[in-house]
Design brief:
With 251 residues, the chain is mostly helical. The protein has one domain: Orthogonal Bundle (Fic-like fold), CATH 1.10.3290. The longest helix has 24 residues. It starts with a helix and ends with a helix. The relative contact order is 0.17.
C-alpha cells in the first residue's frame, strides 16, 4: 500500500530531474486533462475507452457516443482553466466555488440546489432533505478545515493531502446538493482541485464505476474515507512514475 511518505519520496525524484523541457510540460498538461476527463467519464458509466476520450479532446467526433459525453470531455478543459484561476488567488473550496464548478460542468447559468428528497439507489443512501444546502456544505467544509488546523492530516510536506481530498469528496456527496449526477461530478472536481492545490496534479482514480460507487457508499455510511484516500495515493504515485518516465524518455 502506498503511503504519503512514498509519494513525497517519489516526488523528490521527479523534481530532482528539473528543469523540465517544454515537451515534458506539454506532456503533463495533456496527461492532466486526459486523466481528469477519462476518470470522470468512466465513473459516469460511459463506454468510452481512454483512446476515445483522447480523440474527442483532439477535436474528433465518435459515432454512437452521446453528445453529452462529447461535451463532458471538453468541459474538463474549462475546469482546468478555472482551477488555475482559483489557485492563483489561493482559494479554498467553498460553496461559491462549488457552484461555479457545477455551472461549468452542467452548462447551466445558475445551477439550482436540488429540491426535496432524492434516493441514491447506486449508493444505497438518502441525503437529507435540507432546505439550506449552503449551510450543510459550509459545515462539511468547516469540518475539513478544523481537521487540517488541528493536525488531523499531518503537517508540512508529509501532510496527507489525499485523505483531505477524499474527505472533501465524501462531504460533498453526503450533502448531494445538486440535481441529477452533478453532485458527484462537482465532488470529484473539488477532490482533483485539492490534489493540485497540494502541489500535485489531476489523476485517473483508476477504479470501475461499481467499485467507485461501493467505496463512496462505504465512506458516506461509515464517515471514514480511508479506503478512498488509499486509492488516491496509489493514483498519485502512479502519475508521478509516468511523469518521471516522460522526463527520462525526453518527450
Amino acid at each position: 500500500m502506498v503511503d504519503i511518505f512514498d509519494i513525497t519520496e517519489k516526488r523528490g525524484i521527479l523534481y530532482s530531474l528539473a528543469p523540465f523541457s517544454e515537451g515534458v510540460k506539454n506532456f503533463k498538461r495533456r496527461a492532466d486533462l486526459l486523466d481528469y476527463a477519462y476518470s470522470d467519464l468512466r465513473l459516469y458509466g460511459s463506454a468510452l475507452k481512454k483512446e476515445g476520450v483522447k480523440s474527442i479532446l483532439d477535436g474528433k467526433t465518435i459515432p454512437g457516443i452521446p453528445v453529452f459525453e462529447h461535451r463532458l470531455c471538453e468541459v474538463h478543459r474549462k475546469m482546468l482553466i478555472r482551477f488555475e484561476d482559483k489557485l492563483s488567488m489561493k482559494h479554498e473550496v467553498d460553496t461559491i466555488m462549488l457552484n461555479e464548478f457545477c455551472k461549468i460542468l452542467s452548462g447551466v447559468d445558475l445551477p439550482p440546489f436540488r429540491k426535496g428528497t432524492c434516493v441514491l439507489y447506486h449508493l444505497d443512501f438518502v441525503p437529507g432533505d435540507d432546505e439550506n444546502m449552503s449551510v450543510s456544505l459550509m459545515e462539511a467544509f468547516s469540518s475539513i478545515r478544523r481537521a487540517e488546523k488541528n493536525g488531523g492530516y499531518g503537517e508540512g510536506e508529509n501532510m496527507d493531502f489525499c485523505r483531505k481530498a477524499a474527505d472533501m469528496h465524501m462531504g460533498i456527496v453526503k450533502v448531494y446538493p445538486y440535481a441529477d449526477y452533478f453532485s458527484e461530478l462537482a465532488a470529484r472536481s473539488a477532490m482533483q482541485y485539492e490534489l493540485i492545490k497540494a502541489g500535485y496534479f489531476t489523476v485517473d482514480i483508476g477504479v470501475s464505476e461499481p467499485e467507485y460507487n461501493r467505496m463512496t457508499a462505504d465512506a458516506i455510511h461509515s464517515g471514514d474515507s480511508s479506503e478512498f484516500a488509499d486509492v488516491l495515493r496509489t493514483a498519485v504515485y502512479k502519475k508521478i512514475h509516468v511523469l518521471i518516465d516522460a522526463v527520462e524518455r525526453g518527450v
